[in-house]
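Support reply, case 0932

Customer input (verbatim):
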Amino acid sequence: MLSRPHRVRGARVCELPGSGAAVLDGELSKKMSTLEHMASQQRIEKLKVFLGADPDDAFTRYALALEYRGIGESERAAETLLDLIARDPAYVPAYHQLGQIFGALKKTGQAQDIYQRGIAAAAQGDAHAQKEMQDELDELDHE
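Our regenerated output:
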């Protein structure tokens, strides 16, 4: 349950009990969203520079995809993850994220294919990721 709303710098704020988190609305919320988007854009630009220096750096390419997803550019995130998988088929987290993106985009067939490929890649030593992807694949099969 949210606390009783109060004003902070012109915005209404409700604190989430026990979490220290707050829900903002009004102008402050818009400013925070803009700042977060700007920060993501700056991180994206830095990651692109890193990739320019080392195009085969799987972690940097993965981080770039997560930034794209974070700002709502799911298609671009998916393209980046597909590129990562083509370059490094053993990079298991890419399959998991890509399956989630395809699922969210209602591309169920593509999500199922990616999860199956990810499960096979994870079978080489990442039982936890293998189980998570199997669980998500099972959920897709029940939709």
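We compared this against your earlier run and they match. Two observations from our side: The domain at 54-141 is CATH 1.25.40.10 (Serine Threonine Protein Phosphatase 5, Tetratricopeptide repeat). The chain has a mean pLDDT of 84. Please reopen the case if you see a mismatch on your end.
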